TrEMBL record:
Region entry Disordered, spans: 393-413
Molecular-function GO term, any one: efflux transmembrane transporter activity
Superkingdom field: Bacteria
Coiled-coil regions listed in the entry: 284-336
Presence of keyword Phosphoprotein: no
Organism whose genome encodes this protein: Gemmata massiliana
Pfam families, alphabetized: OEP
Family the UniProt entry places it in: Belongs to the outer membrane factor (OMF) (TC 1.B.17) family.
Entry protein name: TolC family protein
Length: 413
């Protein structure tokens, strides 16, 4: 990495983005998994645990000691080898293998989190663009009302106050359009950061693909599946299994049991061998503190499994409830609220042109229509965010029975 950031040749930049074509949600996810620097940083943990696994499988080298002869002192040399390493090696390998599996499961969970974050950032960018369209629609509607008010003022059918109120309302609509216009670059930069394209000057424009997910699996089945298959649950299991092996090592690893081959000048060959043993006498220190710490770590990790279980259940149920909330409110708005508001504003504008109602009634129905469009855009974004969270909570991509998970209509503006 140079002073100007990561090397761009290591990044994936689709040609369609360089041509200015829209970015799909699936492409954004692939870009994030390939380009995201923070995710690559976490990948190094796998290398660390694999290195620990290699180290745990190595036996210690034997040691050689040589004593030079001196006057009235024979020469002597010996070779020693820690015999306890032969039975400790399998225990250490089991512990480090479980740690490696924990790191792999944790990395998988981090990938799910990154996918969720990318999809939600994609939804935020779409929401920002939808809000701009709603604001543009508001400007158009209120300028039309302003023209009608000025025409009625010239005809003597409206007061100067009504025309002034319409003019102020049109200016406020333009003010809202200016504010919402700056939400797009903020949302775009967050998505650019997650997809690792901060150093690449390409425009990120979400595509116009429709989105209408439906859950076909009962909630209890989703919860049971998530508890059984979520990577963070597997990581908690592997961490507890590693703690069990570390406890066994703590109970046995403090004992030193050396096998010796000793040679010294003798009467026959001048360097006669004899075996010997050297071992720890467990009088004062039997690694009581190390054993207690290993036991406490095991207890902590066993309790963490329960914590992770409860968190998974909460994640799935909460995400499912938020999905149902967004789904139900969006369906109600599209099927009942929006058609009623659109019909009302048409009647109000027609009556206003004929002088049958005041401008205040037209203004109120106009605001209701804009609020409906803005709420619809927000609900589409909420639905996308809730669906991304639900799939992350379950740990897999969900699809509706008999249909794709996408396919409906976009907000009207």
């Amino acid at each position: 990495m140079g002073p100007n950031g990561p090397k761009t040749e290591q990044l994936i930049v689709p040609e369609r983005l360089e041509r200015g074509e829209p970015l799909t949600e699936e492409q954004a996810v692939v870009l994030a998994l390939w380009n995201n620097a923070a995710f690559y940083e976490q990948l190094v943990e796998l290398d660390l645990t694999r290195a620990d696994l290699v180290q745990a499988g190595l036996l210690p080298n034997p040691e050689f000691v040589y004593y030079w002869p001196a006057a009235n002192k024979p020469f002597k040399y010996l070779i020693d080898f820690p015999i306890e390493s032969l039975w400790l090696r399998p225990l250490r390998m089991k512990a480090t293998a479980a740690e490696n599996e924990r790191a792999s499961a944790r990395l998988t969970q981090l990938a799910l989190d990154l996918i969720r974050d990318t999809r939600q950032a994609y939804a935020d960018l779409q929401l920002a663009r939808d809000r701009v369209r709603v604001s543009e629609r508001a400007v158009q509607l209120r300028e039309d009302i302003l023209k009608l008010a000025e025409a009625r003022l010239k005809a003597g059918d409206a007061s100067e106050l009504e025309a002034s109120t319409a003019r102020i309302d049109a200016l406020q609509a333009r003010q809202d359009l200016t504010r919402t216009g700056y939400e797009i670059p903020v949302a775009r930069e967050r998505l650019r950061n997650l997809t690792g394209l901060s150093a690449v000057t390409v425009e990120l424009v979400p595509d116009a693909a429709v989105f209408d997910p439906h859950v076909g699996t009962p909630l209890d089945e989703l919860v049971a599946e998530a508890v059984a298959t979520r990577p963070d649950a597997a990581a908690a299991d592997h961490a507890a299994r590693a703690a069990v092996e570390r406890l066994r090592v703590a109970r046995l690893g403090w004992v030193r049991f050396l096998g010796l081959l000793d040679a010294t000048s003798g009467r026959v060959t001048g360097h006669e061998f004899s075996p010997a043993l050297r071992m720890t006498v467990p009088i004062f220190n039997r690694n009581q503190g190390g054993i207690a710490r290993a036991q406490a770590e095991l207890d902590q990790l066993e309790r963490r499994k329960v914590t992770v279980y409860n968190q998974i259940v909460q994640d799935v149920r909460t995400a499912h409830a938020r999905y149902q909330q967004a789904r139900a409110e969006l369906d109600l708005l599209k099927n009942k609220t929006r058609p009623e508001v659109e019909a009302t504003i048409k009647r109000a504008r027609a009556a206003f042109e004929k002088g049958g109602v005041t401008y205040l009634l037209v203004l109120e129905t106009n605001r209701q229509l804009i609020d409906t469009y803005a709420r619809e855009a927000q609900l589409f974004a909420d639905l996308r965010r809730a669906w991304a969270e639900l799939e992350r909570s379950v740990g897999r991509k969900l699809s509706s029975p008999g249909r794709d998970s996408v396919g409906s209509e976009k907000p009207s503006p």
